[in-house]
User: What shape does this take?
Amino acid sequence: AYEITYGDWSSDVCSSDLCSAIFMADPASASTSAVAAPPGSFLTMIGISLISVFFTYGGYQNTMNLGADIHKPQKNIPRGILTGMAIVITLYLLINFAYFHVLGFEKMSQSKLLASELAGAFLGPKGYAITSIAIFISVMGFINTSLISNPRIYYAMADDGILPHIFKKVNSKTQVQEFALIFFTALMIMGMVWLGTFEKILNYVMFIDSFSLVTAAGTIFIFRKRMKDSGYSGFRIKLYPWIPLLFMAMLLSVTYSVFISDKQAALFGLIIFAAGYPLFYLLKKISSRNSVKPQS
Assistant: This one.
């Protein structure tokens, strides 16, 4: 729900700014900027404008964290992802049509709070308050989704012996991963304090999230090779290898755009991502050592 609400703002601001730069730029200023702009800057601007747009469509990968709780996950997870994205795309197109029809292109290109202005046009001053409440509810829904899905990754890693056993500890009464939940929340709060602004948080999240998904998608090629003669009869992605390659190429374009837009956030994300490799083996070694019971 949060992604839909935020997407209304981010994707429209990016698209309207980009369109206004293309169709409404003054010829004189355009010629002056063309001299100062580096080669390929037009594609760079498009890539940067798509960072927030890609973020609005994100979240589909979190459904896989709930695979153990989904009936027939091999069938229902892909169906849920495709259905959800189709709904989101439809809502985006409808809300953009409403923005253009009610506010007009010129006002869209200058506004940073399109949803509030649209609500204000229909409901007056109360529309701004209603929009704020709706955004707050949507943000709470997104937080709830994150708190449900992400600690389950810690549970799976602890179950595989990568993280300490405490990460898979579940309260017997509430069935809540108390330690994993507190740990994840603390990480998020520290990240918000460290990065400070929303733009830096967005760039950091998009860089490390996109780069992580690229490496995750790359494992498809490894698994296909390993399971070639294993008689595996489970889910297989269609149009292999073109869809994984296209998916990875699009996400790499996002990481490149983040790097161009905010090198500091991209570098910070790259360091965190690279640190995960030695940390993985270190935690696995510590966990395996703790699991060995001393002989009496």
